[in-house]
Amino acid sequence: HMATATFQDVRHILQHWDKGSKSEREVMLNDFINQCENMTSPELESHFHDCASLFLARITSWLRITYMFGTCLKLQLQAIAVFISASTSFLMEFLEVGGVLTLL
Do the beta carbons of residue 8 and residue 49 sit within 8 Å? Predict the structure, then answer.
């Protein structure tokens, strides 16, 4: 569950994502969207113990390898939108990894 996390909690969340199945990641994305959709950038960073970018990178990477199949596409885009709406710095991170090219 993703309440405001300690560094160890964030490490566990990221490891769970890395080892998680499609359905586990789907649950994680739903939890993230429901808990974080109206957060500001400082709130997201606090929520992820200053490691929010690591979670965004994982979502973006998964999007890049699964978008052709439509795997959880709506959830992935909603989760990315949570980050982008919180801060232009998250938008820049998304752009820097080729996020827009993935969506084209």
Answer: no
Q: Give the span between the Cα atoms of 23 and 103, in whole angstroms.
A: 22
Is the separation of the CB atoms in 10 and 47 below 8 Å? no
Buried b (16+ CB within 10 A) or exposed e, 30-50: eebeeebeebeeeebbebbbe
Task: State the CB neighbour count (10 A cutoff) for residue 88.
Answer: 11
- Tracing tokens 């964030």 back to the chain, one arrives at 10
Question: CA 60, CA 94: separation in Å to the nearest integer?
Answer: 7
**Cβ 1 vs Cβ 31: under 8 Å:** yes
Write out pLDDT tens, residues 7-57: 888 899 999 999 999 999 999 999 999 999 999 999 999 988 889 999 999
